[in-house]
Amino acid sequence: MVMELSELKKEFEQFLKQKGYKVTKSRLELIDKIAKYGSHFEIEQLVVWVSNQDKSVASRSTVYRTIKLLQEFGAIREVIKLGNRTIYEFIAGKPHHEHLICVKCGKIIEFYKEEIEELQDRVCEEYNFTPINHRLEIFGLCKECASAV
Amino acid sequence: MVMELSELKKEFEQFLKQKGYKVTKSRLELIDKIAKYGSHFEIEQLVVWVSNQDKSVASRSTVYRTIKLLQEFGAIREVIKLGNRTIYEFIAGKPHHEHLICVKCGKIIEFYKEEIEELQDRVCEEYNFTPINHRLEIFGLCKECASAV
DNA sequence: TTAATTGCAAAAACTTTGCAATCGG
DNA sequence: CCGATTGCAAAGTTTTTGCAATTAA
Q: Can you list the residues of chain A whose pLDDT is less than 50?
């Protein structure tokens, strides 16, 4: 990772203070757990994982509420919406990228194409549209699953 | 629209028969209603609209079940996933395109950039990934909403 | 005839919220 | 101390499903 976790946590504290929110044990624990959980995750997994910790870190409600804060802060984002599932990604310190999603095995491949970003900017200009964020999902079969058919 | 609705309904009938499904009144009525509903819609809207028709067209369950069939058939697709909402689009006879979504007023602008498609194909080749479909959503502010800030 | 489809109501899955107790500043 | 946060359970959303009645082939 580009950014140290301790540094990220400090920035998150800054963010909370600046917004008039409180720096609580749950919030700091959660950003820590999410960072260590792995790149992609779903809320339910996180709730279960967090519930199985020795000491209670946060309840389901708090997880949901903190997820929103972390999105606002910019440490995580919804990257894949597949059927009724929402997959989040820990993006702090990571450059922007898009995803290839294997609909058979669930594998997620990240990629970045500068030209695609540029073309998007051009489209936005054409329509006088001010982009805030975007998401490009390519669903299909990964190499292994395609050859297994 | 490029394709006639009557022709589309015939193709849908073909599709149903081929799959061993039955051609029912509800299914034909629904493809008709959706085609006439307008480009983008959410299921709840459709259920309400369909419920308000003189003669009952289909129940909520049937709407949900038929939506899945129509996706399989290829007449509609999930085009925008925003928060917990899913916006579908009637795509039969329409060329592929992507969307700009105004997060303030909800306006949806369609666009198509051949180069973006080509670049995606190239990425897929690089990763030996077999694409099935994709979705590019650019969230931001439309011209009107941006100037109103 | 008979297997698929429908409508209903119940359940499931996911997310939000009211409120009393607790915690941070 | 005071207002924000938490946990809980209840409620809200959205979607799925079991089953008896109905319908298409």
A: none
Chain A residues within 8 angstroms (CB to CB) of chain B? 81, 100, 102-103, 109, 111, 113, 115-116, 119-120, 122-124, 126-143, 146
Please report the pLDDT score of residue A2 as a whole number.
55
Q: Among residues B90, B66, B79, B68, which one has the least CA distance to residue B138?
A: B79
Which residues does chain A have within 8 Å of residue B102's beta carbon, measured at their own beta carbons?
A: 129
Output the CA torsion sign for B27, B32, B35, B38.
negative
d(CA A125, CA A121): 6
Q: Which CATH architecture has domain B98-147?
A: 2-Layer Sandwich (3.30)
Strand B76-82, strand B85-90: pairing: antiparallel
- Chain B: which residues have CB within 8 Å of chain A? 81, 100, 102-103, 109, 111, 113, 115-116, 119-120, 122-124, 126-143, 146
| pLDDT of A1 | 52
* Residue B1: pLDDT over 60: no
Tokens for A79? 């990257």
CATH architecture of the domain with residue range A2-90: Orthogonal Bundle (1.10)
Q: Where are the domains of chain A?
A: 2-90, 98-147
